[in-house]
Specification:
The chain has about 280 residues and is an alpha/beta fold. The chain is about 35% helix and about 20% strand. The protein is built from ten helices and eleven strands. Strands 1, 2, 3, 4, 6, 7, 8, 10 and 11 form a nine-stranded mixed β-sheet that branches.
Length: about 280
């Protein structure tokens, strides 16, 4: 009897282990798990759906919860592929394999009623550093207090923005705004200035939010691919090891001309297609 109970116990434990390693948090089994950038999550979900349409035996789960999480999940084996909406550091470029899906940018945004149409890096550094607090101190400003908004410290948006300024946002920046919450916060406050994914600010177009030029260059599909806009960056699929099997098939598909219409429709700018055999 004791031997029978031991065998049953082992069987139950084995079943639990198999369930854990073959399911996501929703309890559904998947062949491929992608985690990462919130801003590019909807795009990857559409790419995954189209990929599954031509590869019905493959299943892909996409969870957009932050670029840094995507890198951590890949490094720790919790995801097959990371989705990262910023350019890699030299160390990250050596540690991971990077595949460009699209181009995006960090767009500086103001309320649509704000007459300011352009800001410089020095302007932004002064505003976010708390040295300039009234719109009248900026070219085109009508006067009134400035309310600078920032993204969470662990977001790719914040990494790109702070990297451009060469400093971190000061205490004047207030509570961090998450995802599209930044767009809503600026739309609700004529005194606000913030920053968001160019793609998210563009699709769908927000009637109460305007992007402003930075260092004399407007964020646009023409300026972003060539790096003319100063906070342009790539959107990447990232793996720890060289892709193989479904990982390779999905990355080849997601970086091919077969999905560039989805990239454009999502407000992003297509990246150069990955060289190699056509996707299956």
């Amino acid at each position: 009897m004791a031997k029978l109970l031991l065998i049953l116990g082992v069987a139950v434990v084995t079943a639990v282990i198999v369930w854990v390693v073959t399911t996501t948090s929703t309890g559904e089994a998947h062949d491929l798990v992608v985690t990462g950038a919130y801003s590019a999550g909807p795009l990857l979900q559409k790419i995954a759906a189209r990929f599954q349409g031509v590869n019905p035996r493959d299943r892909v789960a996409v969870d957009g919860d932050g670029s840094e999480r995507g890198l951590r999940d890949v490094e720790q084996g919790r995801a097959d592929v990371g989705l990262v909406a910023r350019d890699p550091t030299p160390v990250e470029r050596r540690r991971f394999h990077w595949y460009s899906v699209a181009r995006d940018a960090v767009a500086v945004i103001v309320h649509a009623g704000n007459p300011v149409a352009a800001l410089t890096r020095a302007d932004l550094a002064a505003v976010y550093g708390g040295r300039v607090t009234d719109w009248s101190a900026l070219r085109g400003g009508a006067g009134g207090p400035i309310r600078p908004l920032t993204a969470p410290e662990d977001s790719a948006l914040r990494t790109v923005f702070d990297g451009f300024l060469g400093t971190s946002a000061g205490p004047s920046a207030g509570e961090p705004q998450y995802g599209t919450g930044m767009l809503e916060a600026v739309a609700d406050d004529p005194a606000a200035v913030g920053y968001a994914s160019f793609a998210q600010a563009r699709v769908p177009a927000h009637p109460k939010v305007e992007t402003v030029a930075v260092n004399g260059v407007a964020a646009s599909p023409e300026a972003i691919p060539v790096g003319g806009y100063p906070m342009s960056h790539g959107v990447y699929l990232v793996t720890r090891a060289a892709p193989a099997g479904i990982v390779d098939r999905f990355i080849r598909y997601a970086t091919s001309p077969a999905v560039q219409d989805l990239v454009r429709d999502g407000g992003f700018v297509p990246a150069a297609p990955r060289p190699g055999p056509p996707p299956q």
